[in-house]
Amino acid sequence: MTPVIDIAGLVKTFGTTRALDGLDLSVEPGEVHGFLGPNGSGKSTTIRVLLGLLRADGGRAALFGADPWRDAVALHRRLAYVPGDVNLWPNLTGGEAIDLFGALRGGLDETRRARLLDAFDLDPAKRCRTYSKGNRQKVALVAALAADVELYVLDEPTSGLDPLMEATFTDCVRELRDAGRTVLLSSHILAEVEKLCDRVSIIRAGRNVEAGTLAELRHLTRTAVSADTERPVTGLAGLPGVHDARVTGTRVAFDVETAALESALRHLLPFGVRALTSTPPTLEELFLRHYAGAR
Amino acid sequence: MTGLAGTRRLTRLALRRDRVQLPVWLAALTLLEYGSAVSIVEGYADPAERTAFVVTSANNAALLAFNGLVSGDSVGATIASQVLLIMLVGAAAMSTLTVVRHTRQNEETGRAELIGSAPVGRHAPLTAALIVAAGANLVLGVLAALALVACGLPAGGSAASGVAVAGTGIAFAALAAIAAQLTSGARAANGLAAAAIGAAFLLRGVGDATGDVRGVRVDPGWASDLSPIGWAQRIRPYDGDHWIVLLPLLALTAAAAAAAFALAARRDLGAGLLADRPGPPRAGRGLRSPLGLAWRLQRGVLLGWVVAVVVVAAGMGGVGDAVGDVVASSDAVADAIGRLGGGGSPVDAYFAAVLSLVGVAVAGYAVQALQRLRTEEGGPLEPVLATATGRPRWLAGHLLIAAAGVVLLLAVAGATTGLVYAAATGGNWHLTGTLTAAALVRAPAALVLAGFAVAAFGLLPRLVTAITWAVFAACLLLGQIGQLLNLPAAVLDASPFSHVPAAPVAPVTAAPLVVLTVVAAALTATGFAAFRRRDIG
């Protein structure tokens, strides 16, 4: 099956700044793909290239197997987009903006529009200039999510939303996934990506640092283990794959690479394990490690 | 006083932001004063001719309504009767735009919130805006007075003229400060302030037109007493220099500023006193296309221009009848109009001259309308182009409105001039068609500027505002004073308006119109091609 998004070695420069420096990104049909990176890492630039707003300087970018620059209009009928920084027309109402975007895209689902307005608790009769950042974000979200399309490109869509509305957003994306739609979700909020995404691409300074399913990524990471034993544990620090072992009396805590988990546990057993907790790595930690390495 | 903390810094910020805009305003208005003064000093050197011209002006209600109060027949007084009113309106416009830019616009964009969170007093932003506007007006007053002195006019009257200009500008700055408290949008605040200027202009127009004429002096009717612009005119430069009129202007300024500060203290940051009414929750059929959106965004500007063009064209038509007398009284005026209009009968030459002016002004509409392209690109263009809307279609929507607006405005100008002239002279209705056609002859040249704006938007998006207005200003100056300055033909020919046949006085030939249209089309095509090829943002 053709990937919905297929980017390889993408390069985009602004003057002397290399915003994208050989970026790869692949999104399969029907997947919710997390696109993670800190501010200024090139997420929005990548999306703008995919939307044909910017012209790539090198590499390959394909959307539905076509050229996003040349075939922009035809491709845009098949996608909906929420920009990271939502700018609207101050003298149009939110409802007018939603209808306008719908019409420009070629129609929108009326029942879904009504349901989304309700779910996001948005007053469509207000002028856009009076909306807060969060409400402008909601206008863009309703306009995009009410569209019946194959791909939803969402650039940090929850940055202005409160936790309640974030939950509403999460529900909406799950519905899209259940309906077999493809979603590219750019974010630096890891909990959101963890909740929603099948696969994740992590970028930094315009380059990939990691890509895969969450399970695959966790293979690269460490589980935090702490245990209470009858006798003090010895010899743990020498084991391959074990890091930061700390023994205080009968308490022991260490991080272990997933591949070495079994051997580490076997090592503990002879000391008489009374209690054991293990914490799977959060994406946060994954993230921290990647960017800590960058500095 | 803590309410004013940070005023000095905000004043410097405002000056930094206006470092191009305000000098351009000041230079343009000073040049206007100087250029008009020079042409009158040279054109009316003979006292008898001048007195005849002044008497004619004083006895024509339409001339009084649109040119302003006539008071005295010295060289200086004649200049004042021709240019003081424009200077007063110009100063008022500069002031209101400046004040709104540094108050309500900052609140609308959210900059004021950021500023307000710093140790800055509640009244500091408004105070800084008023200081900048008042300072600009004082500089303008001095420059205008110096320009008059440079033409060899008496210092006293020149100073009175400058003071009238500065005083009016400052009074309207204070009125704009009130407007900025009332609405929550900067555009609406500018609209309110413009309406105040328009009302002041019209009131004194009615007052001046209905005044008592005593030889070379007019005592305006009571309607002028209701208008700050009417008060400022009563300073009567070079004809007694009645400084006393400064008192009501200063009183108005103080009262309006106090009201603005009181209103500002009563409202929340970002909110207007006039509440935003809810709008339609659904988009109408007309809005659901790129062209519909362009129309919605552009219609306010076009409507404002239609109103302005109708008012100005009615004035031009109304004074048409008097022009024959004026021209008969002065060979110099006949020469001047002849230079602008080509030749033929005095009235036709007059219409050719004023329609040429309208043509340039309408090109200014096209340039203003097309600034919207860049505004949109800095705002919601990105999500629009992420829909199934192609770049050419979006661009074409705005261009179509601007181009149709040019044609509409020219037609309205020609038709209104003709109708009012016919009504004033009690006949000559056939001239309406002639003048409408003559006005439309200016369309290709105006469209060249529209095409230039599109080309600039495609090729040099970051510079589009600066270079389009610079080119427009160059065309305006070349047309109005290029010949007076005896510039070489090659320079004059750089303006598209130099190639427009001076209809209705000169015969209309197809060749220049075809060439101008082709140039406009080529510029437009260049802009489209470049815009398709460049990055958005």
From TrEMBL, chain A:
It comes from Spirilliplanes yamanashiensis. It is a peripheral membrane protein. One of its GO terms (cellular component) is plasma membrane. PANTHER family: ABC TRANSPORTER ATP-BINDING PROTEIN, ABC TRANSPORTER ATP-BINDING PROTEIN NATA. This is Tetronasin ABC transporter ATP-binding protein. GO terms for molecular function: ATP binding; ATP hydrolysis activity. Residues 5-230 form the ABC transporter domain. Keywords: Antibiotic resistance, ATP-binding, Nucleotide-binding, Transport. Belongs to the ABC transporter superfamily. CDD domains: ABC_DR_subfamily_A. Pfam families: ABC_tran (PF00005). Its main location: membrane.
From TrEMBL, chain B:
The chain crosses the membrane at residues 20-41, 79-100, 126-150, 162-182, 189-207, 243-264, 301-320, 349-367, 399-423, 435-460, 467-485, 505-531. It comes from the Bacteria. Keywords: Membrane, Transmembrane, Transmembrane helix. This is Exporter of polyketide antibiotics. The lineage of its organism: Bacteria, Bacillati, Actinomycetota, Actinomycetes, Micromonosporales.
